[in-house]
Specification:
alpha/beta; four-stranded parallel β-sheet; two-stranded antiparallel sheet; about 35% helix; globular
Length: about 130
């Protein structure tokens, strides 16, 4: 019998009820729990999301700007990057591109509380949209 896939779900109650995001992991691919890097320049948001994810069974790390995210990802090799878009020093899109260049299997979820980021996401490179 081959390896069994396990699926973790992250609940997002903000948009039209509850949406579930599936995160599958094949045991043995990465020993232990799936690793999630949470990035936001608002420390309370990054830290709170990391706590919620840890309580849901994920291993987490936090970074507070794009440059720190790239450094942390390079050393830690996350399975999933959850990042704000608008941050000082390096935005979330730039950080995600650099992280995906060195860790192609890392999934990316970008978010923002600012409506002005819609245009940035429309022009987002295909490597992040179709992965």
């Amino acid at each position: 019998m081959g390896p069994r896939n396990t699926t973790r779900f992250i609940s997002d109650p903000v948009i039209r009820g509850t949406r579930m995001i599936a995160f599958s992991k094949t045991p043995g691919q990465n020993r232990g729990r799936p690793k999630v890097l949470v990035v936001d320049d608002e420390r309370v948001i990054a830290d709170t999301l990391a706590v919620i994810l840890r309580q849901s069974g994920f291993e987490t790390a936090t970074a507070y700007d794009g440059m720190e995210a790239v450094q942390t990802a390079t050393a830690w090799h996350p399975d999933l990057l959850i990042s704000d878009v608008v941050m000082p020093r390096m935005n979330g899109i730039e950080a995600a591109l650099l992280i995906r260049a060195s860790i192609p299997d890392c999934k990316v979820l970008l978010f923002s509380g600012q409506a002005s980021t819609a245009e940035m996401l429309v022009t987002c490179p295909r490597i992040l949209i179709h992965s």
